[in-house]
Design goal:
Length: 852
C-alpha cells in the first residue's frame, strides 16, 4: 500500500491562523472532488474557525474517562474504517489521554499515513523537541507537549503560517484568539512583542534549515556542482598559522551581514605535511569558530587550492576567505601561491584575500622532501640547463683552473640537482658531467681518451661520490615525505577522535569526518545479517552523505572493520596508503558499534535487575508486613462471627474498629505499592496545573482522619500558586505528614508551612521527633526502608520513597533537613506557576487551534 503524504502548517505562536489555513486547504480539496474528513479540529470557540467546518464531514470523537472526568480524543479506529483520501488532524504535538491506543497524536497520524491516508496537520514551533529548551528560556513557560523534529522534517510539505507580532497582538486585542477576560494577562506575559519576535525568528530559521537540506539533496540527486547563492555560506581556510584568528573573525563578520549566514572553517592537511601547522593553535582556532556559531572541518588533499574549492562547492559556499600569503618575495618567484591558484579556479565563488601582520614574513624552516612529478621534471630541466652553462664557464677559465676544480664544480651541480629533483636527475647530471669533464677538460681534450690513470681515478671517484650524494639526498627526501604523511594521518585521527570525545553522536560523526577528510560523496557502515552458501545480505548501520549504499558492491572502496562489518565509500578509488588509514577508521567504527550494543544491553539489563530487586523486597514485605493487617482484620471478623462467645456492644464496636483500621492500612499499602510500580515503569499519568496550596490541605487532613487534628497548618496567604497535579501533591503531603505524625512526641504535632525561594515554592513538614542521621537520609527514601528497620507494624517503608517519586514526576524535589532544636523537616520544592489565569500553550490547554 502506498504511504500517505503529510502536510504540516507551522506557526510561531497560537493565534497565527494554522487551523484556519488547514481547514481552508480541506475546503479547497473538497471543492476539487477529494474525499476529505475532519479527524480532529479544536476551534476554541473562534467563530471564523468554526465557520470553516461547514460542509466538511467530521468523524465523531472518542470519549475517554480519566480520574472521574470525561475527555474526547480523535477516534483513530473510526477514521481508519472510514478510509478517506485526506484527514484533517489538528495539533500534531498533542498528548493523548491515558487509555488511548497511542501516547501522542503524531503516532496516530503515523498509523493514518501507513494506511495510505493523506494527513494535513498543524503545529507551533515551541512544540519541536530540539528547541523546546530555547523556547522556555525566551518565554519562561515550559512546554509539556513536544514532537520529535524527525516527524515534522519527514513531512512531504511544510508551510509556514507567518504573522508579525504587532498583527497577532491586534488579533488578541480584538478577542479573536482568547476570551476578553484573558486578553490583558496574555498580552502582558506570553504574547509580549519580544517573545513573539523571537518565536517568529526561530520558526523562520528552522524552516530555512529544512529547505536548505532539501536543496542539498536535490543538488546531489541531479549532480549539480555549481554554487547556488540561495543562502550565504562563508568558508574560511585555516593553515594553523598565527593569522587564523584574524581570518575567523573577518569571516564571521561577513557571514553576520546576511541573516542566517553560515560560517564554516576548513583545514587542509596535505599528504606531504602541513607546513607551519601548530596543533595547539588549530585547536584554539576551532574553539573560536564554534564559539562564533560556526563549524570546523578537516580534509586531506595534496593540491590545497583544489581541496579548498572541492569542499566549498560541496557545501554550496558563496564566499571563501583566505589569508594573504606568508611567502617571501623570493619564494613567490617560484610560482603562484595558494591564493592565486584558488582565485583562478574559484568560478562563481567570491574569494576574499585578507591582509594580516604575518604577510611576506616567510614560513618556518622545514624539510620539503617532496618527490612529486613536478619536482622531478624541474630536476631534469635544471640538469640540462646547468651542464652547458657550467662547461662554458669552466672553459672560459682556461689554464687558470685544473681538473680538480672542474670535478668539484660539477659535483656541486650534482648536489644542487639532487636537492631539487632527487635521485634520477642527479644520476643523469653525474653521467653527463663525467662525459663533459672527460671530453673538454681531461687531457687529451676533445676526445674521450684518458691518458693518465690519475685522471681516470678522479672521474671514477666523481661518479661514485655524485651517485652516493644523490642517493642520500633522495632517501632523506623520501623519509621526510613519509614522516610528513604520517603526521598528517595522525592529525586526522586526532581530529576525528576529538570530535567523538566532544560529545558528537559517535558513529555518524565518525563517518561524516571520514567522508570529508577523503573527499568522498558518501560513507556507509554495513553489517552482514545473513550469510549462506549462495548470497550475502547486508544492511546499513549508519551513513553520511548521499547516496546511501545498499550493498558493498555499490561503493568505490570497501574497507573491512571486522568479518561482518565493512566501511563502504563512494566518490573515488583509494590509494594504498589511504586504505591503510581508512582501515583504522573502520576498526574504530566497529568498536563503536560494539560499545553501543553493550550499552544497550546494559541499559536493558538494569531495569530487569531493579525489577528483580523490587520483586524480592515486595515478596519480603508481603510475607510479613501485608500479612499483619490481614491477620488482624481476619481475627476481628472471625471473632465477631463466632457463636461461642457473647460480645458486648462495646467489644463488638472495638472489634469492628480494629478490622476497619487494619483494612484501611492494607488499602493504603496496596495503593502505595501500585503507585510506586507505576512510577518505576514510567506510566504514572501526571497532569499539572496552577493551583493554590489551600486547595490541597483540607484533603490531606481528611485523609489522616482523627490524627489530622494534631497537625498545625500555617500557610501564608501571599504564597503564589504552584504548578502541580492536585491528586499527586495531596498524596505527597499526606505521606510526609503521616510519617511526621508517627515520630512526633505526644502533644507536639507536626507543622505544615510554606515559603517562596526564587521561582520555587517550598512546603515544609516540620516535626520534633528523633530526626534522621545524615548518613541515613538517602537510604530512607529507598523502597521498603524504615528508620531503624525494627518496627514491622508501621508499614512496608514506601511512604517516603513514593513521596519523592511523585514530587520528581511533577518536576519537584523532596529533601530532609534538621529542625532547629531537634527533629526532622521535610522540604517539598515545586515550581511556582508563572501566571494565574493565562492559558499556557501546550501545557494545560489541550489544543491551540486558530481562527482566520
Amino acid at each position: 500500500m502506498k504511504r500517505g503524504q503529510l502536510r504540516v502548517y507551522l506557526g510561531a505562536a497560537p493565534g497565527v491562523g494554522k487551523t484556519y489555513k488547514m481547514l481552508g486547504e480541506g475546503q479547497r480539496r473538497l471543492a476539487r472532488g477529494t474525499d476529505v474528513v475532519v479527524g480532529f479540529v479544536e476551534t476554541h470557540g473562534r467563530p471564523h474557525t468554526a465557520a470553516m467546518l461547514d460542509g466538511l464531514e467530521v468523524v465523531p470523537r472518542h470519549i475517554l474517562d480519566h480520574r472521574g472526568a470525561s475527555f474526547t480524543e480523535m477516534d483513530l479506529d473510526a477514521v481508519l474504517a472510514r478510509r478517506p483520501e485526506v484527514a484533517l488532524v489538528d495539533e500534531l504535538a498533542h498528548s493523548n489521554v491515558p487509555g488511548s491506543r497511542n501516547a501522542k497524536r503524531w503516532q496516530d497520524i503515523e498509523e493514518l499515513l501507513a494506511a495510505g491516508i493523506d494527513v494535513i496537520s498543524a503545529v507551533n514551533i515551541q512544540h519541536l523537541e530540539s528547541i523546546n529548551d530555547v523556547v522556555e528560556k525566551i518565554t519562561g513557560v515550559p512546554q509539556q507537549e513536544t514532537v520529535p523534529d524527525r516527524v515534522v522534517r519527514a513531512a512531504d510539505q511544510i508551510e509556514l503560517v507567518d504573522m508579525t507580532p504587532e498583527a497577532l497582538r491586534r488579533r488578541m486585542a480584538h478577542g479573536n484568539v482568547y476570551a476578553a477576560d484573558k486578553v490583558d494577562a496574555a498580552l502582558g506575559n506570553y504574547f509580549r512583542v519580544g517573545n513573539l519576535s523571537a518565536l517568529r525568528e526561530l520558526a523562520l530559521l528552522w524552516l530555512a534549515d529544512r529547505v536548505d537540506a532539501g536543496l542539498q539533496q536535490y543538488r546531489a540527486q541531479h549532480d549539480i556542482d555549481s554554487t547556488w547563492e540561495a543562502r550565504e555560506r562563508v568558508v574560511v581556510a585555516l593553515t594553523g598559522g598565527p593569522e587564523g584568528e584574524t581570518l575567523i573573525r573577518r569571516a564571521a563578520r561577513i557571514a553576520a551581514r546576511s541573516a542566517g549566514g553560515d560560517l564554516l572553517a576548513v583545514h587542509v592537511a596535505r599528504s606531504d605535511g602541513l607546513t607551519g601547522a601548530d596543533p595547539k593553535r588549530l585547536a584554539e582556532q576551532r574553539n573560536l569558530v564554534e564559539s562564533l556559531g560556526g563549524t570546523y572541518h578537516q580534509v586531506v588533499g595534496d593540491d590545497v587550492p583544489a581541496a579548498l574549492l572541492t569542499f566549498a562547492r560541496a557545501e554550496n559556499a558563496t564566499q571563501l576567505v583566505l589569508g594573504g600569503s606568508r611567502r617571501s618575495r623570493l619564494s613567490a618567484l617560484t610560482g603562484p601561491g595558494i591564493g592565486a591558484s584558488t582565485i583562478r579556479g574559484s568560478g562563481d565563488i567570491d574569494v576574499h584575500i585578507v591582509t594580516h601582520s604575518q604577510m611576506g614574513r616567510g614560513r618556518l624552516p622545514r624539510l620539503r622532501g617532496s618527490l612529486s612529478r613536478r619536482r622531478k621534471i624541474q630536476g631534469f630541466l635544471l640538469s640540462i640547463l646547468l651542464q652547458p652553462i657550467l662547461a662554458l664557464a669552466l672553459d672560459l677559465g682556461g689554464d687558470r683552473l685544473n681538473l680538480t676544480s672542474d670535478v668539484l664544480a660539477f659535483l656541486l651541480a650534482v648536489v644542487v640537482v639532487a636537492l631539487v629533483g632527487g635521485l634520477w636527475p642527479a644520476l643523469v647530471t653525474a653521467i653527463g658531467g663525467s662525459l663533459v669533464i672527460n671530453f673538454f677538460f681531461t687531457p687529451p681534450t676533445r676526445t674521450f681518451t684518458i691518458a693518465e690513470v690519475n685522471n681516470a681515478l678522479a672521474l671514477f671517484i666523481f661518479i661514485l661520490v655524485a651517485t652516493l650524494v644523490s642517493s642520500v639526498v633522495d632517501r632523506a627526501a623520501r623519509r621526510t615525505r613519509q614522516a610528513a604523511r604520517s603526521a598528517a594521518e595522525s592529525e586526522t585521527l586526532a581530529t576525528l577522535a576529538g570530535s567523538v570525545l566532544r560529545g558528537e553522536t559517535a558513529l555518524p560523526a565518525l563517518l561524516e569526518r571520514v567522508r570529508e577528510a577523503f573527499g568522498m560523496t558518501s560513507a556507509c557502515l554495513m553489517e552482514r545479517v545473513d550469510d549462506d552458501e549462495l548470497t550475502e545480505v547486508w544492511r546499513p548501520i549508519a551513513s553520511a552523505g548521499t547516496p546511501t549504499c545498499r550493498r558493498p558492491e555499490d561503493g568505490d572502496a570497501e574497507i573491512p572493520g571486522r568479518d561482518d562489518l565493512v566501511l563502504v565509500l563512494q566518490g573515488r578509488q583509494l590509494a594504498a596508503d589511504e586504505r591503510r588509514l581508512v582501515g583504522a577508521f573502520a576498526a574504530h567504527a566497529a568498536a563503536l558499534v560494539d560499545r553501543a550494543r553493550l550499552s544497550e544491553a546494559a541499559a536493558e539489563a538494569k531495569p530487569l535487575a531493579e525489577a528483580d530487586k523490587l520483586r524480592t523486597a515486595l515478596l519480603r514485605a508481603v510475607g510479613h508486613d501485608l500479612r499483619s493487617p490481614l491477620a488482624s482484620a481476619k481475627a476481628s471478623v472471625t471473632s465477631l462471627r463466632s457463636a461461642d462467645v457473647e460480645w458486648s456492644a462495646e467489644e463488638r464496636a472495638e472489634l469492628l474498629e480494629n478490622a476497619d483500621e487494619s483494612l484501611d492500612r492494607l488499602s493504603r499499602l496496596v495503593d502505595n505499592l501500585l503507585d510506586l510500580s507505576r512510577l518505576q515503569a514510567g506510566v504514572l499519568p501526571v497532569f499539572t496545573r496552577p493551583m493554590a496550596l489551600d486547595e490541597v490541605i483540607p484533603g490531606v487532613l481528611g485523609e489522616l482522619g482523627d490524627d489530622g487534628q494534631r497537625v498545625v497548618v500555617d500557610i501564608p496567604h501571599t504564597l503564589p500558586l504552584i504548578e502541580a497535579d492536585p491528586a499527586l501533591i495531596e498524596r505527597v503531603i499526606a505521606n510526609l505528614v503521616a510519617n511526621a505524625l508517627r515520630y512526633s512526641p505526644a502533644g507536639q504535632g507536626p507543622l505544615v508551612t510554606g515559603s517562596v525561594l526564587g521561582d520555587t515554592v517550598e512546603i515544609r513538614v516540620i516535626d520534633r521527633g528523633p530526626g534522621i542521621p545524615r548518613a541515613e537520609r538517602d537510604r530512607v527514601f529507598a523502597p521498603f526502608q524504615r528508620l531503624g528497620d525494627t518496627d514491622n507494624t508501621v508499614g512496608v517503608g514506601l511512604g517516603l520513597a513514593l513521596a519523592r517519586g511523585l514530587a520528581e514526576a511533577m518536576h519537584g524535589t523532596v529533601q530532609p533537613e534538621d529542625t532547629p532544636g531537634g527533629g526532622l523537616t521535610m522540604v517539598i520544592a515545586l515550581p511556582a506557576a508563572t501566571a494565574t489565569d493565562v492559558p499556557v500553550p501546550g501545557a494545560r490547554e489541550r489544543s491551540d487551534g486558530e481562527q482566520g
